[in-house]
Amino acid sequence: MEDIRFVSADEAVSHIPSNCHVHLSSVASVPHILIQALCRRADAGDVRGLQFHHFHTEGPAPYSEPKYEGIFFEQGFFVGPNVRANVNAGYADYLPVHLGESQKLYREGFIKLGAALVQVSRPDKNGYVSLGTSVDCSVAAIESAALRIGVVNPNVPYAHGDLVHISSFDYLVEDDTPLVTKDFAEPTPTEVEIGKNCAALVEDGDCIQMGIGALPNALAAQLGGHKNLGLHTEMFADGLLRLIKKGVINGENKAIDKGKVVASFLLGSQEVYDFINDNPSVLMKDIGYTNDPMVIAQNPHMKAINSATEVDLTGQISADSIGMRIFSGTGGQLEFVRGATMSKGGKSITAFASRTNKGKNKIVGALNTGAGVVTPRADAHWVVTEYGAVDLYGKSLQERAKLLISIAHPDDRDALEKEAFERFGMHFLHLGI
Known about the structure:
There is one protein chain. It is built from 14 helices and 24 strands. It has helices at about 10-15, 30-45, 80-90, 100-105, 140-145, 190-200, 215-220, 240-245, 270-275, 285-290, 295, 335-340, 395-405, 415-425; strands at about 20-25, 50-55, 70-75, 95, 115-120, 130, 145-150, 165, 170-175, 205-210, 230, 235, 260-265, 265, 280-285, 300-305, 310, 315-320, 320, 325, 345-350, 365, 380-385, 390.
């Protein structure tokens, strides 16, 4: 490290020109020291027109706040809780994209990056650094940006997979701020039941994908008795880490990256970050690799498990919005849905509670006005709630409605039956499933 020249955060960001696109490394590894320096520069009236791109970010997001209108503008590829209100108020925006294609926006020039701001590990003996918990589309950003600023942080784990050379950066900044950690709540009784219903669709030797949060952790808790599972996913957290440490997930049956855990970004406890540090059994890869359906499909018996905000009676799956209100993003859901269904013996599974925390049904006659369809009905396969699991593939619209009503909350079924009858007519009442 002695021959590497570091500058202050303020000096580094002083080279970012006004009116350009800026990439941030995301999730747990946001370069907050650079964001704070940009805010100081903005407060001094020294910069305008910066448009920010990233996956969801943890921690403060001043680049989305009304006070910086005209100076900063958020255009994230995924909307997290820290920017959700500002996005829906119009002070920030959401750029819809399959996460696996986010890197394509940079590499093929659809977004011309003026600057890439990322956190990296300390370099190895050959000068290579890891992007740690947030590889995502940051490799593409470093390749494509006119200006590249790296924050070398000893708390960023040196993860194997896609690395970049320290010489790739125009400016380096030192920081030792810990990465953001997150402890997810213990599963509710409803989530436990959903986990059981999902686990019944997973067989020994399968390769799995799932997200982070209480529901994926509930599923992971139900997989403890399985054997020889593989993991190829966008992200993972503590629930899956427990299965890795128990040997349930070992990757023995994978056709590619055999014996390896493959992911692109992480959010969890410090234990998760410590686990990937210099661990050759974990590969943190470019999102263009992890989310490529053709790559996903190469592992046999792929089981992709995702969630939804609403599902209508024909099988249209909304996951990025609640009506017109943007809630999250397209993510990699459809990429894994298609990759899993192309996989030999694979299954796509959409799992969610039948009702929201406020008691509103999530299986509906029609999606709320403005809701985004993330997984089209032609791509919908298994749907799981706490009341069971049904397979929509190869089923007609009326057959789908019958099946979905059977796993809706019991108190919602009569109203859904009425909506289905009004839509499909008398034949629906006599349809046997």
